[in-house]
Amino acid sequence: MLKQTMRCEWRALRADRAFWLALGLFALLIGFGVLNGARWTAVQQGIAPQLAQQAEEKRQENLEFFKKVAADPRGQFIPYHSGIMAFQLWPSLHLPPAPLATSAFGQSDLHANVVEARTRFDWALATEPLDNPMGLLTGRFDLAFVIVYGLPLLILALCYNLLSGEREGGTLALALSQPVGLPVLMAAKIGVRALLVFAVTVGAALLFLLLCGVSPATPGVVPRLFLWAMVVLFYGGFWFVLAAWVGARGWNSVANAGALAGAWVALVVVVPSLTGAAIETFSPAPPRLALSQAVHGANDKAKDRGEALLVAFYAAHPDQKPDKPDLKDFWTQRYAMDAQIEREMEPLLARVENATERRHRLASTLNMLSPALLAQSALNDVAGSGDARHRAFTAQVDGFRAEWRAFFLPRIYRQVGVPLAQWDEMPRWTFREETVGQVAWRVLPVCAVLALVAGVLAVWSQFSLRRYPVLD
Amino acid sequence: MIFHVARKEWLEMTRDGRFRVGAVLIALVLLTSLALGAAHQSTLRTEREAARQLSRTQWVTQTDKDPHNASHDGLHIVKTPSALAFFDPGLSRYTGSTTLIASHKRSEATLRGARDTGVAGRFGALSAALVLQLLIPLFIVLLGFGAFAGERESGTLRQVLAAGISRRALLGGKLLGLGAALGVLLIPAALAGIVALRLSLGTHSDTPGEAVRIALLAVVYGTYFIVFAALTLAVSARAQTSRVALALLLGFWALAGLLVPRVASDVGRALYPVPSAAQWTAWIDEAKEAQKNGEEPRERVKRLQAQLMKQHGVSNLDDLPVNWRGVLLQHSEDQTNRAFDHVYNRLSDVYTRQNALFDMAAVVAPALSVRSLSMALSGTDWQASQHYSNDVERYRREWVRLLNADLAAHPLAPGESYEAGRKLWESVPPFQHRPLAVGDVLRAQAPSLAVLGLWLTLSLAALVWAVKGMKL
């Protein structure tokens, strides 16, 4: 019976011009969102080759100079110091766009994706990307925006009067005189609309993504697309079920529209912004300003203690002491000072990291209050523009810094250069992309929560339909 | 007669459970936003004031050193939040909280608050301004969409007019009734806002014309609500059914409040792209090169030394009555300043062009002109941020000039070095920022004022036209 009812519903919808107009308009919005995302991704993808070229130029420049020093018969050049090399050759650490970056800007316009942080405190204070604050405040028109804000509006516009419209038009009683119950009628109406809405949403998104150069052959694209479709399915499913739940109350169409519009405003506008304000007010911000000032103060104090710090270091690490250490050497002192400042900053740095972590945990918990927040965070994760991937970047930057130091610091303290034969052993920066499993691990719980809420509402709707007033 | 109609409208609305629920919910959200805003701003003020004092202490108590080295080490300039930021935080989360000024380069404020608020922050942390810009118009729509259309559907419109009430009186009464309902909600909220302002500020205020700004904010928002009320009643008078009126008004609300701003933002980015980090560096390098006029640094130093010796009538650098290093450093600083003026003007031009698109888009979305005026009067808009940034830069230049002048005033014999101490550090005045005067704010906001005025005129004209030709 469900199949037959769906067929009837399909016939009715096929003749409904407004329905197709709404779907067409929505597909166009998807196209505009994808286009914006693609433009941004193209800019981001252009950064990696630029940085690689800059790094290679720097390397060649240093190599030439090194060779000149090595070949200098008069010894007019100072021995080429590892400290200078470590400083000169430190690469710009780049977080490349993820395979499906085109689908959501996420937090990428707030987090620096190219950093030159030689120390942990530099990283905690990393400069933010250049951008127009008005644009940052307004947000971007990307595919995620169309899904998070637009998809519910489309669903509510198509479903606010599923039963009430029939009742007000006098056709509900007629329909129910056939061997079909209200739950089946409701399921058929929702089912046909859901199939069409998802087909158009996923189809248009895939089409525009392909047209904008997202290749399924790129590793990670297909599974991420699958995860993206799952988020859309569960998020859209929640709104369909909500429309059904409101529709099962027995109110008239205008009241349904008002209730659904109110729910949309509450869940997509008010609760997320309230959550943002609550996080800001109740969870102390990471004390970055205090850290910045403390680094400044420690730097000032360390400057006069460079030599003493170096002496202390050699006393503690006699194995790294050269035969005749130059205690006045600027570079060796500089690294000894940085190490000292980093040690002094450790408690404050831990406070920054803990506060950041606390805020992330609180935000993740409060995201449960709104399906829009859940969907946005999941879509950001799929696109690789969320906080989690940036945290993975941070961890890898820390790892790279440790490798860099392990390579250079012993040589810096021994006040020797890096022999030509060892240049290729220098650590090189490459971001290790998250696995699809890691992304899925964050995205699937979101889908599960949405499914759970939708399931509860669906069961509730079934019970409500038993008392549905068929006649006005 | 108008008052009779208004009284009837008022009674109808207040007896309607939906009005009571809606009003209570909006009042709660509004009061919550005021309370959260006041608490957050109060915390920020306390933190920033402590940071400002620490910055001064660090400067005054820094070790004795070459004054130019002190300018390299830098100085933290901490931004004090605007007094009315609790009402409309505007761009304050996106414009940074501190600037580490130093010689040879212009720096912008960093450590944006938005970077630590997660996904929820991007939905726009709840503020009273957000409630007034988005929720109150929605409330007006829900209150007024059936004002004429509903009466027409139930057949009472014809009866009312047949009873001798003129269309003008009916219109006046309905507007007054709607205004009274809003007044009940907004007047206590405005009083709560003033209390929140006093609580967030404590005992002092640093925003000139605070009372005038509050009064102007009331006028701007009052006008905005009149525009929405007039549009709502006009659509209600002309729409075939109340359902159509509701659909049209909700569509306009979503378009104007959510869709158009993002489209304007992305079109702006596409037409006037913000430079990437690499391009920004290239801009700076180009501007610095242009300032050199093809002269090698070594040649420039020689030329300036020669000029200096000629000016003082000596033939040897050691005979100069000034420290030539200080003079040369200032010369180099002036050259770099010109380069930075060039690139920052270029960047400002990009932002200004992007922002002009928001002003243009306000022609179809009045929320944009209100947002712009609200931020400007609250001292949290782009202009206020630019004004602050320029003040910081002016201060930086004077600060560097003072330090270089001190160095120049201490000529040294070969082998001698000079270190300044606390006396010099204390002679540097602390940074003072005077926010823009209300007149300057209004002058800069002329486009937004004009657009809002246009909306007021057109919406009232549309209302008169709609009611005049209203079908019964």
Provide a descriptive summary of the structure in words:
- The complex is a heterodimer of chains A (472) and B (472).
- Chain A has helices at residues 2-14, 17-70, 82-88, 120-124, 133-138, 143-159, 164-168, 172-176, 182-211, 221-247, 253-282, 288-303, 306-316, 330-366, 371-383, 387-414, 436-465, and strands spanning 93-94, 114-115.
- Chain A has 472 residues and is mainly alpha-helical.
- In chain A, α15 packs antiparallel against α17.
- With 472 residues, chain B is mostly helical.
- Chain B is 72% helix and 2% strand.
- Chain B has a two-stranded antiparallel sheet.
- The interface between A and B is large, with 81 and 88 residues.
Task: Briefly characterize the structure.
With 472 residues, chain A is an all-alpha fold.
Main attributes?
heterodimer; A: 472 residues; mainly alpha; two-stranded antiparallel sheet; 17 helices; 71% helix; 1% strand; B: 472 residues; 72% helix; elongated
Derived structural class of chain B: mainly alpha
Task: Quickly count the helices of chain A.
Answer: 17
Could you give a short account of the major beta sheet of chain A?
Answer: 2 strands, antiparallel
List low-confidence stretches of chain A: none
Q: Give the C-alpha Rg of chain A.
A: 30 Å
The radius of gyration of chain B is: 29 Å
| Ends distance of chain A | 26 Å
